[in-house]
């Protein structure tokens, strides 16, 4: 079953990764999503 993520949530994750240099692993752990769900 796929999860739906709000557009603002996705933008926040991308911004944290690109602008603040956060790793996808740390973001996945913090926001409790799989790394595969946030790969760009």
UniProtKB/TrEMBL annotation:
Pfam families: HTH_Tnp_1. GO terms for molecular function: DNA binding; transposase activity. One of its GO terms (biological process) is DNA transposition. SUPFAM superfamilies: Homeodomain-like. InterPro entries: Homeodomain-like_sf, Transposase_8. This is Transposase. The lineage of its organism: Bacteria, Bacillati, Bacillota, Clostridia, Eubacteriales.
């Amino acid at each position: 079953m796929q999860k739906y993520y709000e557009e603002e949530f996705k933008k926040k994750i991308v911004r944290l990764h690109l602008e603040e240099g956060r790793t996808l692993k740390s973001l996945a752990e913090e926001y409790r999503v799989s790394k595969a769900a946030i790969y760009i």
